[in-house]
Amino acid sequence: MLVAVLSFKGSPGVTTFSVALAARWPAPARVVLVEADPSGGDIATRFSLPPSPGLLSLAADVRSGKPDPSLLWHHAQALPGGLPVIAAPPDADQARAALLALAPNSTYTVLKLAAHTSGNVVIVDCGRIDHGSPAMGIVREADVLVLLTRAHADHLAHLARKLPAVGQWAPRPVLLLVGDGYSTAEVGRELGVPPLGRVPHDSLGAAVLCGRRPRSRWSRGGPSHSALGRFANKVAASLAATPSQLRLEHDVLAVPRVSEPQNVQGGVSP
């Protein structure tokens, strides 16, 4: 399965949630996280990773030979806890060049080849997306699209203009709200798309997922012990559901709803 995580406006914490989603994906799937943000990566800096292997070395390998599904794991580094990650360079020009090298030149990209190998899940952090983004090819190849947005009027108005195109990009678009603002019910009523849930405000959990040293015994358990990690696990379990478990809600294809955390205020730190 190829899962693209993205936003249209601002910085609602796409990278942090992508790490949480990959780290909490249910077993026995073999998961790899690919950072494909054209504005440059954050993961290498957050976790003090060396520049190689990563997205640049993967792009060079793809250019030099036939795409091989096993290439992704050859160019991944392990985060604390063991999650394999292909980190993008912090420099935007280098990140864009690497993504252009990975752009689909046939029906299957190296990412999709790996994602459609039995047991594999490839989660791609596409950052903030627009039609000119070099990550758009990955978005169009995705089996599932996870769209994060803040729930304020300006963000939702921007999103409303993009929604007609979203359904054409991926067969299973999923909407997640971040931070305070309109409720999931209000957003669903206004947009005609029921959000799957709201990402909880969890500064300690987000800090761990951003590579910062845990400040308490509670947060040392990593994402599995945080509100953000538990929510990401629920989302991942829903996305991993078989097609027979999907249902139509208001004529929109949606995965089973994740319950919204109560009395949540604020957003996830990027």
Can you offer a commentary on this structure?
- The chain has 270 residues and is an alpha/beta fold.
- It has a single domain, classed as P-loop containing nucleotide triphosphate hydrolases (Rossmann fold), CATH 3.40.50.
- 35% of the residues lie in helices and 20% in strands.
- The protein has helices spanning 14-23, 43-46, 55-64, 71-74, 92-101, 110-115, 136-141, 153-169, 184-191, 203-209, 227-239; strands at residues 2-7, 30-35, 77-78, 84-86, 120-128, 144-151, 172-181, 197-199, 247-249, 252-254.
- An eight-stranded mixed sheet has the order 3-4-2-5-1-6-7-8, sandwiched between helices. It has a two-stranded antiparallel sheet with strand order 9-10.
- Strand 6, helix 8 (153-169) and strand 7 form a beta-alpha-beta unit.
- Helix 1 crosses helix 11 and helix 3 (55-64) runs parallel beside helix 5.
- It starts with a strand and ends in a 16-residue tail after the last strand.
- InterPro entries: P-loop_NTPase.
Précis, in short:
The chain has 270 residues and is an alpha/beta fold. It has helices spanning 14-23, 43-46, 55-64, 71-74, 92-101, 110-115, 136-141, 153-169, 184-191, 203-209, 227-239, and strands at 2-7, 30-35, 77-78, 84-86, 120-128, 144-151, 172-181, 197-199, 247-249, 252-254. This is MinD-like ATPase involved in chromosome partitioning or flagellar assembly.
